[in-house]
Amino acid sequence: MVLLVIQVPTSVCSESCLPGTRKANRKGEPLCCFDCIQCAEGEISNQTDSLQCVHCPSEFWSNAERTACIPRQLDFLSFNETLGITLTAVAVSGATVTTAVFVVFLYYRQTPMVRANNSELSFLLLLSLKLCFLCSLVFIGRPSVWSCRFQQAAFGISFVLCVSCLQVKTIVVLAAFRSARPGAGALMKWFGPGQQRGSVCLFSFIQVLICIIWLLSGPPVPRVDLDIPGVKVSLKCTMSSVVGFSLVLGYIGLLACTSLLLAFLARKLPDNFNEAKLITFSMLIFCAVWIAFVPAYVSSPGKYAVAVEIFAILASSYGLLFCIFAPKCFIILLRPKRNTKKHLMAR
């Protein structure tokens, strides 16, 4: 007689899931059989229902174990990190070099090289370049309501003042050679030093007016970007009015393109030291930097967008400083025999 022993099969079930995971039933298996699946980033395991993971609030993020929601850390370009220190050093170096050039021009202010083409505009241009270097420092640090407003206004006005000086300098070069023709001697009287200062003030006042309207209607404000996943969230100045920022950049671009066109027309005028050639090259660098800035700024996330704008400010400022003043300082300091009116006016 054969005895049959019937054994009831037992289901193979997982152990209880660890914190930070949730239970997921195996397909085709008894309900007691399940797998443990780790919760996704930004989620933690539900303590009351082991089959669910719950999302953390927008101001929080899950820890590494997915067991608790922790406050998200604010991330911005600070003076303490490597990138911030590097940009600060470059900006301070630029302001220092500009100050040194200013001192050289002030010491040699009676020489033909400095007096040529309105020395007042040269000093004003150096002052505006120094402001351009220093305004980049306002972009570094924790954004606040007033820093967000001040940084864009300082940037826009400083660069318009700088480009306005270059545009007026180019007009002076054209007017000087035009007045040398017969019957055109009164041309420079209509564009003397007073008119030159007035033109710079007018161009700069228009930018000041644009900035005032922009900051009163829709100023940039500090805002936390909670849409980006991760423990760190970007705190940056957000443009409430893209139109205002576009007008500020557009007006700078308009003056830059006009200066480039005028300098290009005056580049072949007969002169042993034609400043229009230097302005042409400097404005080419200036326009190239800011044309490349737009796509780089739009595609850069968080604090790196701020770093891109600072880099554009510093690169264009260094381009203007070295292209316009380096040849002059070379002649003043190292080739003083060429710093004569006879040599400058030689054809």
Report a brief summary of the structure.
The protein is built from nine helices and nine strands. The chain is mainly alpha-helical and 347 residues long.
Describe this structure in words.
- The chain is mainly α and 347 residues long.
- It is 56% helix and 11% strand.
- The protein has helices spanning 82-107, 112-115, 119-135, 145-179, 193-217, 242-266, 275-299, 303-334, 341-344, and strands spanning 21-25, 34-38, 43-45, 53-55, 60-62, 69-71, 73-75, 221-225, 232-238.
- The strands form four sheets. It has a three-stranded mixed β-sheet.
- Strand 3 (43-45) and strand 4 form a beta hairpin.
- Helix 1 runs antiparallel to helix 3, helix 1 (82-107) packs parallel to helix 8 and helix 6 packs antiparallel against helix 7 (275-299).
- The longest helix has 35 residues, at 145-179.
- The protein is elongated.
How would you summarize the topology of this molecule?
Blueprint: E1 21-25, E2 34-38, E3 43-45, E4 53-55, E5 60-62, E6 69-71, E7 73-75, H1 82-107, H2 112-115, H3 119-135, H4 145-179, H5 193-217, E8 221-225, E9 232-238, H6 242-266, H7 275-299, H8 303-334, H9 341-344
Parallel strand pairs: 7-9
Antiparallel strand pairs: 1-2, 3-4, 5-6, 8-9
Helix pairs in contact: 1-3, 1-8, 3-4, 3-8, 4-5, 4-6, 5-6, 6-7, 7-8
